[in-house]
Specification:
Order of helices and strands: HHHHEHEHEHEEEHEHEHEHEHEHEE
CATH superfamily of the largest domain: Response regulator
Strand content: 5-15%
CATH topology of the largest domain: Rossmann fold
Number of strands: 13
Largest sheet: 6 strands, mixed
Structural class: alpha/beta
Number of domains: 3
Radius of gyration: 26 Å
Length: 367
C-alpha cells in the first residue's frame, strides 16, 4: 500500500509571531487589521507572514472585526448577458475596494432567492445586492431580515413595494414610448412585447408587473398608443417567455391569430436570440415581413443582418454604482445623490413598413 504523504501544517498566527519576534496578540492585531500596532511591528509581521506563506483565517477575522470583506450578489439569470455585464461593473468596484463577491442565481424563483439570502447571511457577508424576483411587499420578508441584521442592502434593476432600500434602476417609460411611437409612425398597430417575466395568468393591467422595468416598458407602449389614438390590447403583452420551448409556443399562438403581429419587441437579448431563431425557422425576414426591436445593446445586435434597433441602457455603470453605494454604506461613508440612469433608443435597420402576408402551414412550422 502506498504510504500517504503527510499534509504540511499551515503556519499559524503563533508561528508568525515567533518569526517576527513579537507577541501573539501583536501579530493578531497586525494580521487582522484591528487594534493599534506600531509601523515597525506591522512591517515585521507582514514580512514574516510573507516568508512563511501565512494565510489569514477569514472566519476568525470576521468574528474579531465584524467584517468579512465579502459582498453577496443575487441575480435572476446568470446566463443573461444583461446580468453578466452588471456583475462585471460590480466586480471591478469591489475588487478595487478590497472586497470579494459571493454570487448566487435565483433563476427568478422566489424560494431560491430566499435561500440565497439565508446562506449569505450565514456566511456573514457585509452587504447584499439583490435583483428581486418579486416586488410584492408580503413576499420580501427575507430582504427586511437583511436590514434587521444590520447588513447593507441595495436593489438592482427592480424595486420592492414599501421597502425603504435604494434601487439602482433605469427609467424606461419615456424610451419605451419613443420606441413604440417609431413603430406606430411606420404603420404598425399589431405590436407585441415578449418578456420572460413570470405571471400566473395572462397580462391584464400594469400592476401585474409591480415595480419592474417591464411595467415601465408596457406603460410606455400604452402611452404611445393612447397618444396616437389607437386602442391597446393586453394581448399585445406576452409573458412567461423563459425558455426556447415557451417562446416557440408564444410565437405559434401569435401566428394562429387572424392577424399575426407586424412588429415584435424583445424584453432582453436572450429572448431576442430565441425569437430570431424561431422567426428564421418560419422563413420570416426582418424587416420585410415584420419589424423587430430589442432591449439591451450588445455587439452582436449590430452585426446581424439587418442590424437591430435596440434600447440601450448603461448596465455596466449601474452595476458599478450599485457596488459603490453598497460599500459606502458598509463603511459609513456619504452616498451622495442617486444618479438617474436613462436608456437610449438606437435606430438601425430592423423597423420597416408593415406587410400583410398569408402564412401557409408548410412555411409556418406546423402552425
Amino acid at each position: 500500500m502506498t504510504k500517504q504523504k503527510a499534509r504540511t501544517k499551515a503556519p499559524t498566527v503563533a508561528d508568525v509571531a515567533r518569526a517576527a519576534n513579537v507577541s501573539k496578540a501583536q501579530a493578531a492585531r497586525a494580521l487582522g487589521g484591528y487594534g493599534a500596532v506600531s509601523e515597525e511591528v506591522q512591517t515585521r509581521v507582514s514580512n514574516a507572514a510573507t516568508a512563511l506563506g501565512y494565510r489569514p483565517n477569514e472566519l476568525a477575522r470576521s468574528m474579531n472585526t465584524g467584517r468579512s470583506n465579502t459582498i453577496g450578489v443575487i441575480v435572476g439569470d446568470i446566463e443573461n448577458p444583461h446580468f453578466g455585464l452588471a456583475l462585471r461593473g460590480m466586480a471591478d468596484v469591489t475588487r478595487q475596494a478590497g472586497y470579494q463577491l459571493l454570487l448566487s442565481n435565483s433563476d427568478e424563483k422566489w424560494q431560491a432567492e430566499q435561500d440565497a439570502v439565508r446562506v449569505m447571511l450565514e456566511k456573514q457577508v457585509d452587504g447584499i445586492i439583490v435583483t428581486p424576483c418579486c416586488s410584492e411587499r408580503e413576499k420580501n420578508h427575507h430582504l427586511r431580515q437583511v436590514q434587521a441584521e444590520g447588513r447593507a442592502l441595495k436593489l438592482f434593476d427592480r424595486a420592492v413595494i414599501a421597502l425603504d432600500v435604494e434601487a439602482i434602476c433605469c427609467d424606461f417609460t419615456a424610451v419605451a414610448q419613443q420606441a413604440t411611437h417609431q413603430l406606430i409612425v411606420a404603420g404598425h398597430r399589431d405590436v407585441v412585447y415578449i418578456t420572460s417575466m413570470t405571471l400566473d395568468s395572462e397580462f391584464r393591467q400594469l400592476s401585474d408587473f409591480g415595480l419592474t422595468p417591464v411595467a415601465q416598458r408596457v406603460d410606455g407602449m400604452m402611452r404611445a398608443f393612447a397618444a396616437a389614438g389607437h386602442p391597446f390590447d393586453p394581448g399585445m403583452v406576452q409573458v412567461n417567455a423563459a425558455s426556447d420551448e415557451q417562446i416557440q409556443q408564444i410565437v405559434t399562438r401569435l401566428w394562429q391569430r387572424p392577424q399575426p403581429p407586424t412588429a415584435l419587441i424583445a424584453s432582453d437579448s436572450v429572448v431576442a436570440m430565441s425569437l430570431l431563431r424561431v422567426l428564421m425557422q418560419r422563413g420570416l425576414r426582418i424587416p420585410e415581413h415584420l419589424s423587430f426591436v430589442m432591449y439591451d445593446n450588445f455587439p452582436w445586435s449590430e452585426i446581424v443582418h439587418p442590424p437591430l434597433t435596440v434600447v440601450a441602457q448603461p448596465v455596466y455603470e449601474m452595476g458599478r454604482e450599485a457596488a459603490r453605494r453598497l460599500i459606502a454604506e458598509i463603511r459609513g461613508e456619504a452616498l451622495g445623490a442617486l444618479p438617474v440612469f436613462s436608456a437610449e433608443l438606437i435606430e438601425r435597420q430592423s423597423i420597416g413598413v408593415p406587410r400583410t402576408l398569408t402564412y401557409q402551414s408548410s412555411s409556418a412550422g406546423g402552425c
